[in-house]
């Protein structure tokens, strides 16, 4: 594709970015906020983190099952819409149920974790890859700013929730009233998705990557060929799960997710251990750094390649972990601020790379099948994150253990990304295509 022909995102592309942003925001708010801020009302952090883990694991298993049928799903959007509607219904119930209806609330919290994981992190990400296969880094870099933005407002959310208790106006927290702005935005995001987004841009008069060098006839022919190639992809579930490069990429994406998500669910405890620090201000700092970092790592992804961008990301993890350990051992608050700001940076990129690496190093028609395997593997780490981090945090290791985990995960990530080889993926792709009687070509040559 001639990048000079793909300036801007197009009106529908901008809507898609907004849908992605609101989808990721829905995931962040309705999984993180109840754990980070409201856990004491529902049995404590360890209980709520276990619920999050179970719900996310159920979503992961569903994704793995779906990965076997990706080429035969005629409309990703239709299936995504079902999970999106379910997610929004459960989100409203999580906010609206009185906090003393604990058992029913547990079911709804499990439900929103399960459904929003599939809707936002799985299906919306696939559609993003189908709309912007070569500019997915930039697109996802913008959309994943939702994560640090949501973390920016968590302090204000906490203040609003507890205000009736602190002023004596009520003996109940203002959970629904505080959640209401997020519920409205989440619902708007779903409505935009249902009414304005299609499986492929050509189905609503737009073009891949907003590449205006295409004619409608060219775009339609490419779309028809891609749908057929997608149905007959050589990257079956078995081939995908036995590929070494797939595992290198999946584990790195998972480690980034685990450290980012797990740490951010415990920010109130971590920051609270440094009395001189203001929680709301620190979360704003993290958000600003995270928004810039998410956008910047996305640009780097598009400009110099996903592998290099991921290496930069895991290096940031090592630095964040080391600074966090130093902060805990010395009591210097400035160090923990810098560490958490770095966590914010790679938090924004954490959901970017599952899309980017799948579409960058495999064929366009193979993207959905590969992503359908890579994303659930990465989300296994995501599912474990709250439970693992809270277990470490409340053990003898404490906060030092949490930041040591980030540093160690970063080192492992560097090693795995150095082992990751686009050239080897091309060799394996050739082998599978030859065995299937498909023509060999240079489509995967020089993928950066």
Q: How would you describe this structure to a colleague?
A:
By secondary structure, the protein is an all-alpha fold. The chain has 18 helices and no strands.
What is the topology?
Layout: H1 11-36, H2 45-67, H3 76-96, H4 102-131, H5 136-143, H6 146-167, H7 175-196, H8 216-231, H9 237-241, H10 244-264, H11 267-272, H12 279-304, H13 306-330, H14 333-350, H15 352-361, H16 367-393, H17 398-419, H18 422-435
The whole-number mean of residue pLDDT values reads 87
What is the β-strand count? 0
Low-pLDDT stretches are none
Q: Report the order of strands and helices.
A: HHHHHHHHHHHHHHHHHH
Radius of gyration: 21 Å
Strand content: under 5%
Alpha-beta content class = mainly alpha
Kindly state the percentage of residues in helix.
over 70%
**What is the CA-CA span between the terminal residues?**
15 Å
Instruction: Enumerate how many helices there are, as a single number.
Output: 18
Overall shape: it is: globular
Biggest sheet features: none
Give the tags.
448 residues; mainly alpha; globular
């Amino acid at each position: 594709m001639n990048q000079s022909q793909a300036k801007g995102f197009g009106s529908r592309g901008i809507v898609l970015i907004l849908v992605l942003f609101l989808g990721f925001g829905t995931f962040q708010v309705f999984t993180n906020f109840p754990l980070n801020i409201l856990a004491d009302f529902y049995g404590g952090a360890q209980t709520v983190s276990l619920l999050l883990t179970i719900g996310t694991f159920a979503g992961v298993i569903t994704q793995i099952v779906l990965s076997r049928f990706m080429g035969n799903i005629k409309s990703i959007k239709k299936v995504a819409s079902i999970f999106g509607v379910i997610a929004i219904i459960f989100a409203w119930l999580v906010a609206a149920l009185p906090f003393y209806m604990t058992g029913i609330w547990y079911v709804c919290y499990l439900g929103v974790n399960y459904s929003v994981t599939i809707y936002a992190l799985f299906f919306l990400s696939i559609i993003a890859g189908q709309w912007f296969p070569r500019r997915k880094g930039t697109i996802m870099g913008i959309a994943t700013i939702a994560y640090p933005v949501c973390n920016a407002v968590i302090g204000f959310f906490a203040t609003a929730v507890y205000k009736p208790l602190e002023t004596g106006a009520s003996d109940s927290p203002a959970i629904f009233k505080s959640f209401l702005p997020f519920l409205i935005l989440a619902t708007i995001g779903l409505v935009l998705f249902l009414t304005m987004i299609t499986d492929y841009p050509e189905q609503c008069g737009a073009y891949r990557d907003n590449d205006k060098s295409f004619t409608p006839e060219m775009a339609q022919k490419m779309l028809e060929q891609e749908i057929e190639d997608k149905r007959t992809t050589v990257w079956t579930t078995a081939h995908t799960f036995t590929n070494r490069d797939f595992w290198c990429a999946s584990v790195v994406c998972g480690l980034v997710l685990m450290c980012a998500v797990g740490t951010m669910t415990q920010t109130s405890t971590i920051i609270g251990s440094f009395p001189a620090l203001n929680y709301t201000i620190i979360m704003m700092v993290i958000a600003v750094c995270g928004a810039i970092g998410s956008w910047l790592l996305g640009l780097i992804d598009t400009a110099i390649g996903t592998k290099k961008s991921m290496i930069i990301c895991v290096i940031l993890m090592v630095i964040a972990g080391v600074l966090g350990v130093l902060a805990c051992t010395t009591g210097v608050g400035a160090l923990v601020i810098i560490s958490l700001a770095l966590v914010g940076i790679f938090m924004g990129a954490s959901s970017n790379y599952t899309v980017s690496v799948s579409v960058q190093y495999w064929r366009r028609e193979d993207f959905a099948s590969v992503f359908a395997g890579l994303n659930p593997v990465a989300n296994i780490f995501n599912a474990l994150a709250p439970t693992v981090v809270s277990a470490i945090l409340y053990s003898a290791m404490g906060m030092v253990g949490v930041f040591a985990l980030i540093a160690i995960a970063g080192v492992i990530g560097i090693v795995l990304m150095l082992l990751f080889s686009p050239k080897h993926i091309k060799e394996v792709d050739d082998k599978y295509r030859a065995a299937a009687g498909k023509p060999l070509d240079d489509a995967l040559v020089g993928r950066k």
